[in-house]
Design goal:
The chain is of the alpha+beta class. Among the domains are: 268 residues, no CATH class; 142 residues, no CATH class; 128 residues, no CATH class; 121 residues, no CATH class; 101 residues, no CATH class. It is built from 38 helices and 30 strands. The strands form nine sheets. It has a six-stranded mixed sheet. Strand 10 and strand 11 form a beta hairpin. Helix 19 packs parallel to helix 27 and helix 33 crosses helix 34. The radius of gyration is 36 Å and the shape is globular. The two termini are 51 Å apart.
């Protein structure tokens, strides 16, 4: 079968879509576009809820600890209103909730004032001391410098899937999953900012350092204490109290934990003067049995308690992570043993245990083993270090396990009379956290082989001769060391054996099990879900194309930019990507400015100027300077010629003179120059000392640059998600994974190439059939075309089609461009794309709003009715009314009739902006200036229904569902879907089903209702079929037969539809669509 007639599958994979294509020659066997929410399967909200639950549980443990310790020393305990262990409800003590005394009573009740009183040594009753400490522990504060913080960041980064390539680079990390959407880093930054803001606020408010404690600040903000009268503790709320914890302010404030601990320590010390039993237990009560913070982490004698309930003892206690709560993988070389910890351990005397150094030593040795250099004596390139040289470097730098680039260069030049490679980099210190890939017995063998210089095969023979053990319980056996025979026979070529050979020989059931293991090792829920979905799609295509056999090639492309990017799943990678893009744009802008200044406008002048600047005006081929004024006369050469398989990527281009370009011809620099040893060494030195990118240096000086260019331009295939997808495909079909003698069947396409081909063949025009050519040109010139393309869900299918064509690319020798077969053009693609109906396979999860709503009775115009109200969101704060237009929008929703009337009266006078702001600044209610308003959040509810809601006889009303507390309701943001049915008069009606309702119960209720006929379930975003033209009475809103997306069905029966390419919107009545248009969803009617 000719190459052009091979069966090719292609996938365009993003977090929010899958485009898929199966093609044999000109025949398209399958083309589809699948859609789902970008964040579907993300656990961000669930993790936040779990974090809140854990925080609350830890808070209760600290409160219980104080309750227990107070009882032991004789301090009267105040109950807070909670359920006891036996389930009985304990009533709260009124003194606990009370904050101010009655007139004439001098008792201090305010929590912050009790804390101040205790700090100042005022004689207090036992219950007052209890309440003061209770108040102080309500906020534990934030510790920005946790002792395990550095270990956490390193350790989490080391957690990886059980698979690792031979190079030692990890496939995935728990850090990437844990910091999903960048949430972890963002939270940490916000907390650090909040702590710094708090400290600055203390310094601003209090000149005297002794008042820079949380209790003083809270009392000051509430207006109950004044630093000018520090001993006056009978204050009441000021005229305009502010939230003590800055709840409603934009600037977040969190006290440092050190300040909270300082305040508590002084308070407990003062309390011990009244309660002698507390005297020797102050630090015990504050920190727990060890009487020091983070004891199970800092002190080895408490290390066995780490992560247990023991950590939770103390007023500011914190459960300390153990960092070992994951499944232990098996050794990559000796599978019957578990991998070992990479952490360096010490004995009781503080000395490092040598065995614990094995993982970092072997990692260091393997890095040394990978060093290559050019021997200036023999001219040999990419020569490895000899065993003696490697051992010398190991002994010299083993303590730090870090060698700088300059140290390596000096050693190679001085000790080896060699020339360092152009891309030589420093050897970084190995990480000493997490776990190794290997067990200790395997690490000992690898270390010994590398340092001895012995052949792995010779070492195997020696080992077998010296070890006759066959009992697995007594040590290593022959099978344990057979991995040595999988290594090359020569020491110089030593590398860790590749498991891909073994995996290619597995049975189908074993391969399926291996796939499950891979999926189970992925901690990022979005990535795991998309790969599970990808496997399902592989099965669908395999079944659909069963008669065609297995594909000859599978081509993948992964979204790199925008909301669907998998880069977004790894915040650190996304930041690097964005930084690189920013740097590239800056280089282009700089080159463009230089061209404008020099008035150069020739062909490819921008690219030539960028190369000129990168090369700092130097021609490495002629070893002479380049002149900017002669830029147009220079030529761009491909370092690895296109005819020899080189790419058209920027990394493979260099600026030179026409003479040198012709002289080099279709050769690589090595093929062209290496025959003259002296010139070649000079060339290597010039390139090595330049400011070129390390990758370009390596291309210019490598003996086999084609291998490097393939790696550089195939970076997408080495990405985390890409590696996993490729591995899954190979296991799914049982194909060899690029082992020696195998052919590449899985290819990862470059998104830039796909976009280039779309532009080259003018395929973007197919995504915008409804706009004129002039408008399309404007979109292309403005850079808005890509954004517009993404709005059309068919673009995923179009990309998959283009991706499937990449194996057909050929270099046109005349134009030097990549071209496709003549039959592939825009008109070939048009009918194919028009028959694609993108399908939404997952929908947005319905969410309940976080806002709490209250049910209130209202009396206006002698009418009694109820409404739902809220104190949160738009229109609830007076500063939101400062813009007149917004005030007009919000005023009618104010619940208070008097305030609403006052505002409306002022707005009716058409005030200028300045007049309106003055009115707001001077407006008062009952002698005080209002800061917040209650907003009406629903229509009027009749008295009878409202009373039923109050009594609890009704728990739902429209979109509102009753919460756990009386009078508290939540409003549903997004409905689960709609039931559409015919009523007694055969008219179609809509009834939404909300997130808090049971779909099953709703279906059963509709079945039993005699007034409900032919119920059908729809969802927003669903693909629906209109079988007949309808809504004909309104030509502008005519709905033609075919497929449409259902946007929404409103309460009044208005339906909003969107065309497949999202270029048209139509509004029609539900009855017309169902009766005349015969609108139907993909699924059957409910019977």
């Amino acid at each position: 079968m000719s190459k052009g007639n091979e069966l090719v599958w292609s996938f365009d994979l993003g977090t929010g879509s899958i485009g898929e294509c199966a093609r044999r020659g000109k025949e398209i066997l399958h083309l589809h576009s699948l859609l789902l929410p970008n964040d579907f399967a993300a656990l961000k909200d669930a993790r936040e809820r779990r974090r809140q639950i854990r925080t609350r549980e830890a808070h209760r443990k600290r409160e219980n600890w104080w309750r227990q310790q107070a009882k032991k020393v004789g301090i009267e305990v105040l109950e807070t209103g909670h359920r006891a262990d036996d389930g009985t409800f304990i009533k709260p003590d009124a003194r606990m909730s009370r904050q101010f005394p009655e007139n004439g009573d001098k008792t201090i009740y305010a929590s912050c004032l009790l804390r101040i009183a205790l700090l100042q040594g005022v004689q207090l009753d036992g219950w007052q001391i209890y309440k003061a400490i209770w108040s102080a522990i309500q906020r534990r504060g934030y510790d920005a410098d946790l002792p395990w913080k550095r270990e956490v960041s390193r350790n989490i980064a080391d957690k990886e899937t059980s698979e690792k390539p031979a190079s030692g680079k990890k496939l995935a990390s728990h850090k990437e999953a844990k910091k999903e959407d960048g949430a972890g880093e963002k939270d940490e930054k916000e907390n650090l900012d909040a702590v710094q803001n708090y400290q600055k606020e203390l310094e601003r408010v209090f000149k005297d350092e002794k008042y820079r404690l949380p209790c003083y600040y809270e009392a000051y903000k509430l207006g109950v204490w004044n630093p000018r009268k520090p001993d006056t503790l009978d204050g009441k709320f000021g005229a305009n109290p502010e939230p003590a914890r800055n709840k409603d302010n934009r600037t977040s404030l969190i006290p440092p934990r050190a300040l909270v601990a300082k305040e508590l320590l002084v308070m407990l010390t003062q309390a011990s003067k009244q309660y002698p039993k507390l005297k020797d237990k102050v630090r015990y009560v504050l920190y727990g049995p060890a009487e020091q913070e983070y004891a199970s982490y800092k002190d080895e004698k408490y290390a066995h308690y780490r992560g247990t309930e023991w950590d939770s003892q103390g007023l500011i206690s914190q459960k300390i992570p153990r960092f070992d709560n994951r499944i232990i993988s098996k050794c990559a070389l000796m599978p019957r043993f578990n991998v070992c910890s990479a952490k360096i351990r010490k004995d009781k005397a503080g000395n490092i245990i040598p065995e614990s150094m094995l993982p970092s030593e072997v990692t260091f040795l393997l890095k040394l083993k990978n060093i290559r250099y050019t021997d200036t004596t023999t001219g040999e390139m990419e020569k490895p270090l000899s065993p003696a040289a490697l051992k010398e470097l190991f002994n010299a730098y083993n303590d730090k396990k870090h060698i700088t680039q300059k140290q390596l260069e000096k050693y190679i030049k001085t000790n080896l009379s060699g020339l360092p490679p152009a891309n030589l980099v420093e050897i970084e210190e190995p990480k000493t956290s997490g776990r190794s890939r290997f067990c200790r017995p395997a690490l000992r063998i690898i270390k010994e082989i590398i340092l001895s210089g012995k052949s792995p095969h010779a070492y195997h023979e020696e080992w077998l001769a010296a070890n006759k053990n066959k009992d697995l319980q007594k040590g290593l056996v022959a099978d344990d060391v057979k991995f040595l025979l999988d290594m090359p026979a020569e020491w110089e070529k030593l590398h860790i054996p590749d498991r891909r050979i073994e995996e290619s020989e597995l049975k189908k059931s074993e391969r399926e099990k291996r796939i499950v293991e891979i999926l189970g090792g992925i901690t990022n829920p979005v990535v795991r879900h998309r790969l599970e979905l990808f496997i399902q799609r592989l099965k669908v295509l395999k079944n659909k194309c069963r008669a065609e056999g297995e594909p000859a090639k599978i081509i993948l492309e992964f979204a790199r930019e925008g909301e669907e990017s998998f880069q977004g799943q790894k915040n650190k990678n996304r930041q690097k990507w964005e930084k690189l893009q920013k740097e590239n744009r800056a280089k282009k802008d700089e080159a463009y400015k230089s061209l404008q200044t020099a008035e150069i406008h020739g062909k490819q002048s921008l690219l030539k100027m960028m190369l000129f600047k990168e090369q700092v005006g130097y021609d490495f081929y002629s070893m002479t300077p380049l002149v900017a004024s002669r830029l147009e006369s220079y030529e761009i050469d491909h370092i690895v010629p296109r005819e020899g398989g080189g790419s058209d990527a920027y990394i493979n281009k260099i600026l030179t003179t026409p003479d040198k370009n012709r002289e080099k011809g279709k050769h690589t620099p090595f093929e062209w120059r290496s025959s003259d040893k002296a010139k070649w060494l000079d060339f290597i030195k010039a390139v090595g000392s330049s400011k070129l990118h390390d990758k370009k240096k390596a291309l210019l000086t490598s003996e086999n640059p084609l291998e490097l260019i393939n790696k550089y331009t195939d970076l997408a295939s080495t990405a985390y998600i890409s590696k996993l997808a490729q591995k899954i495909i190979h296991l799914f079909f049982g194909w060899p994974q690029l082992i020696e003698g195998s052919t590449r069947k899985v290819v990862v396409a470059n998104g830039g190439l796909t976009a280039k081909l779309r532009r080259q063949y003018k395929l973007d025009r197919l995504l915008h059939p409804g706009i004129p050519d002039e408008q399309f040109s404007e979109l292309a010139q403005s850079g808005e075309l890509d954004k517009k393309n993404r709005a059309n869900p068919r673009h995923h299918a179009l990309d998959a089609l283009v991706i499937s064509m990449t194996p057909e690319l050929k270099l046109d020798p005349r134009s030097k461009k990549d071209i496709l077969p003549d039959w592939f053009h825009k008109e070939y693609c048009r009918p194919i794309i028009e028959t694609v109906y993108p399908e939404r396979i997952r929908f947005e999860k319905p969410k309940l709003a976080k806002t709490i709503y209250g049910l209130r009775k209202n009396l206006e115009d002698n009418r009694e009715f109820y409404v739902f109200t809220t104190r949160f969101g738009t229109g609830t704060r007076i500063e939101q009314f400062r813009e007149i237009e917004k005030a007009r929008k919000y005023t009618d929703g104010i619940f208070d009739e008097h305030i609403r009337n006052d505002f409306n009266k002022m707005l009716a006078s058409k005030p200028a902006q300045q007049e309106w702001e003055k009115f707001l600044d001077e407006y008062e209610v009952a002698g005080s200036k209002p800061k917040k308003f209650v907003q009406i959040a629903s229509g009027e509810i009749d008295k009878e229904t409202g009373e039923k809601l109050e009594r609890g006889e009704l728990t739902t009303y429209g979109e509102h569902v009753r919460g756990k507390m009386a009078g508290q309701y939540f409003k549903n943001d997004v409905s689960l879907g709609y039931f559409v049915y015919q009523n007694e008069k055969d008219r179609w009606e809509r009834e939404p089903i909300y997130a808090f309702e049971s779909l099953y119960k709703k279906i059963e209720a509709l079945k039993k209702d005699p007034a409900v006929k032919n119920p059908v379930f729809f969802r927003s975003g669903m693909l629906v079929e209109i079988k007949n033209d309808c809504n004909l009475q309104n030509p502008k809103q005519k709905v033609t037969r075919g497929f449409w997306y259902l946007n929404t069905i409103k309460d009044g029966g208005e339906v909003k539809l969107t065309s497949i390419d999202h270029s048209l919107e139509r509004k029609a009545q539900l009855n017309a669509l169902m009766t005349d248009g015969k609108m139907a969803p993909p699924q059957e009617n409910i019977r």
